[in-house]
Every structure is written in structure tokens, then in C-alpha cells.
Amino acid sequence: MRIIKAVFHISFTLFLTTTLQAQATSARLQKAYAAFENDPQLKYASHSLYVVEVATGKPVFSKNIRQGLAPASTQKVVTAAAAYAILGQEFQYNTSFGLDPETKTLFIRASGDPSFGSIRYATTKPERLVEAIADSFSKNGISNISGWKVLPQSKNADTQLLPDGWIVQDIGNYYGAGAMLLNWRENQYELLLKSTSKIGDPVEIVNKDKLPSELQNIDNQLKSAAAGSGDNAYIYLPFSGNRFQLKGTIPVGQSKFSISGAVTNSAAYFMEALQAAFAQKGMVVEENAATTADKFDKGFTPIATVLSPTLDSLSYWFLRRSINLYGEAFLKTLGENKSGEWSAEAGLVTLRKFWAQQNIDSFALRMYDGSGLSPQNRVTTQALVQVLQYARGQKWFGSYYAGFPNYNGMLMKSGTINGVKGFCGYHKSKKDGKEYVFAFLVNNHSGSSAALVKKMFAVLDELK
């Protein structure tokens, strides 16, 4: 009897200690958040914080958790988790190359691989890929190619380049690159710029002769600005014709100031590189333009095949470097996996159905893209926490978790668009040894994002 009483006493003591620690964490968060929401930067803002204890699923703090807010890139945790669950962490994209022996047309069967030609992986580096493909054709005795065509893996492939809701100021720049059937070098190019020592002087493009062919017609309106003013240069896609616009400023005294833009015809971008690799082997591409030939639409025997890195590697960079292209590629692939339609619309339907099966209301995940770049997206912090909690219990969680960046000593995904800042992730407290999952969103803040982030971190510090 004494032993039973002793065990009961110990258990009760542990329970009481745990309860008091949870109450203490909750009280600290309440106090910190009260100060936060009264800050002048939040005078006209909407905001929400939701914190849950991982082990029990019990809320530790909640504020406006059912309010739909623009999530920015914190939305990527939703797309990535669905991709793991539906496609599997060993999923790979496949890009294959074949030739019609009669017309000498090069056929490229593409699946929307966002890593094709990426410099992030040893197996996808641009020079290595085109060399390997050209070598395969050369070894098969092929010396002449008359044209080329990109074919989809599925019967239904949407040709819409960009998701709904993306804004004009974003889509010409590297982070606004759309997901295509055949992507190349993450659909980015680099502009090297040179400014004078005088504020207001025109800025020169240094590497114009090395740009993709579609970029040969640029209306360059860039000017030099004060030293330390940073990168305020924006690339605008043509609304008619093929003339890109370059607006804004870069600091004075720059000899090779680098910015990155988005290509709109990544297949042609790739073919320029492949044509050069063919030429080195004495092979000729007679026509560097897409052909209407369709003889091989139903299938062909590949001469060369390229597999992407596995999904866990792709997701790592998607979350760690917040590459919007990957999110849009994942979204279309999810649509193809469930409905046979490679499109953003089909992908969004797939996402809604999947998360509804995990008891997350579709109105709590009102998504228009896979990356969070659209300011039309509306997501609740409650839904984000539910997604993170779901992922925590899956066998692929370790790979998913590895992609979360470290901010302020905490592993969390950040999100930033105009007037929006967010963080969501996981943290194990040193104070009580508990692991917490959280989501923190602010919309329409005033002042600088950097100043707001310090104040958000001050609240999250109470979890440490």
C-alpha cells in the first residue's frame, strides 16, 4: 500500500509540475502577445498566433486562429506535406528524349521537373545534363535534328504559365518564375549591371550578349541611386510584343551588380544550351524552334532519360530557400497524380480534398497557388498548426523537418510579401522540455518588416 501511495505521489507531483509549467508558458505568451498587439506597427494590422503542445495536442496560446490571413511562404509547409503524403519521399520526375527517324524531330517527354538544370544538385547541373544528353544522341549515330517538340507525360496538360493572383511586379523576377512542362535552370537568368558614380545616371547591362534569346529586347530604364540603397530593380514581362522592361534603381559605383529574372519560354532556353552541346559533337540542329510534328505523341523509345533528385531533396530546397517554382511544380504534379490533369487547378482540388480528409476545412486553406506568392491566399494559423501536427506523425517527417530554416534559434518557415510577415514551425523548450508547434501571421503591418520581425521573435522567445 505504501508503494502504491508513493507511486501515486510521484505521478501526481509530475502531473502538477507539468500542468504548472504549461500554465507558466501560457501566461508568458499572454503577457508578451498583449504587448505585441498594442505596438504601433499593428495599429491597422490583422494578426494571429496559435501554439500547441506536440505531445498532447492541447493549445497553449490562441489568438484569432480562425481568421484567414495571407500566409506568404509559410503556405509552403502545406504544399510540401501534401506532396510527401501523396507522391512519397522517393518520388522522382522523369524527362526523356527521343527522335523520329523520318522527320529527325527531337521529342522531349517532360513531366514538369523543377530541378532540371538546377545548380543545387550534382546530378542536375546544366553543363552535365546537356553533355550527357548530347553524348547519348551521338553514340546512337544521330548527326542531324530538324526541330523539336515538348510532349506532356499525361493526356491533359495546362499551358497556363502562372497561377492566378500573382502580381505584375513579381512575375518578371526570379521568384515569380512559372512552372512549365520543361523547366530549365529553375527558369532563371542573371543580369549583371553596372552603375556610374553619379546618382540618376543610366545603368548598363554588362552581360547582354549572354542572356537567353528572349531577353535580347529590353527597355532599360534603370537609374543609379544613393550608396547603400540596395536592390530596387524590377523586371517586367512584355504585355505586348517581346519587349521586357527594366525599372528601378541600384546603388552607385557598382561594376557587376547581380539581379535575377524569370524566363517565359524555358523550353527554348534549354534548347539553346542543348544545341551548343550538340554542336560540340559535330551535330546540327537545323531549326531552333518548336515544331508542330506530333507523330510520337503516343510514345517513343527514349534515347536519353533524366531522373530528378528524389522528392525529399527537392522539398529540402523548396522549404530551405523558399523556391516558388518548386511549389507550383508540386501543385501541378499533385493534380496529375490524382486526376490525370497536369494543372494548378487540378492540384488545388487535390490539396483541398487531401486536407479535408485530415479534418482541415477547405475554407481554412483558401489557396490560389502552391508557393504562397499570391496575395489572394488566405490561411488560418489553426490550419497551419494542424498541417504541422499531421506531418509530425508521419514516417517521412524527418526529411520534411530537415528543410525548415533556423531563425532566431528556432526551426521555422518564414513568409514575406508586401505588408505580410509570418513564421510557423517547431521548437523544443529548454525551460520545460516540451516540444511546441506554432504559426504566427501578421497582415497589413506598418513600418519595416525587419522591425516587426524582432517583435515577433520577442513573443516566440517565450517558448524557449
Mean pLDDT: 92
User: From the alpha-carbon coordinates, what is the Rg to the nearest angstrom?
Assistant: 25 Å
Please tally the β strands and state the result: 23
Oligomeric state as shown = single chain
Give the % helix.
25-40%
Give me the CATH architecture of the largest domain, please. 3-Layer(aba) Sandwich
What coarse outline follows from CA principal-axis ratios? globular
Derived structural class: alpha+beta
CATH topology of the largest domain: Beta-lactamase
CATH superfamily of the largest domain: DD-peptidase/beta-lactamase superfamily
Q: What is this entry, summarized?
A:
With 464 residues, this protein is an alpha+beta fold. The chain is built from 11 helices and 23 strands.
Can you describe this structure?
The protein is an alpha+beta fold. The chain folds into three domains: 217 residues, DD-peptidase/beta-lactamase superfamily (Beta-lactamase), CATH 3.40.710.10; 110 residues, 3-Layer(bba) Sandwich (D-tyrosyl-trna(Tyr) Deacylase, Chain: A); 78 residues, no CATH class. The protein contains eleven helices and 23 strands. The two termini are 40 Å apart. About 3% of the residues have low confidence.
